[in-house]
Amino acid sequence: MLASKATSMASHIPDIKSVEILKIAARSKDVTVRVAAAAGSRNLKIPSVREVLDLLKDDEDEGVRSIARKSIELGYGHIGQES
Asked: pLDDT truncated to tens, each residue of the chain (83 aa)?
C-alpha cells in the first residue's frame, strides 16, 4: 500500500526522475502499484511518460491495461505534449 501511495505522489512531481519512478512501479508484482503507475502517468506532462504506458498497455491485469490504453488514446505521453 505504501508503494502505491509513493508512486502516486511521485506522479505529481513534474520531473523526468518521476518517470523513472513510474517505470519501476510499472514493473512491480503488486497490481495496486501498477494501477498507480498507470493512473499517475496522466499527471505527468512529460513525453517520456509514454514509456510507462508502453510497459503497461499489455499488462496481465485488465484494469491496468484499460487505464494505460485509455491514456494513450487520450494522447498522454505524445511528443507534442506540453511540459
From this structure: 899 999 999 999 999 999 999 999 999 999 999 999 999 999 998 999 999 999 999 999 999 999 999 999 998 887 554 44
Rounded CA-CA distance 26/35 in Å is 8
Domains of the chain in start order, with CATH, are 2-73 (1.25.10)
What is the b/e burial string over 28-52, where b = at least 16 CB atoms within 10 angstroms of the residue's CB? beeebbbbbbbbbbbbbebbbbbbb
Alpha helices, DSSP H, located in 1-83: 2-10, 16-26, 31-40, 50-56, 62-73
> 46's torsion region: left (phi>0), alpha (psi -120 to 50) or beta?
beta
Residue 30 and residue 1 in contact, taking contact as beta carbons nearer than 8 Å:
no
pTM of the complete model beyond 0.70: yes
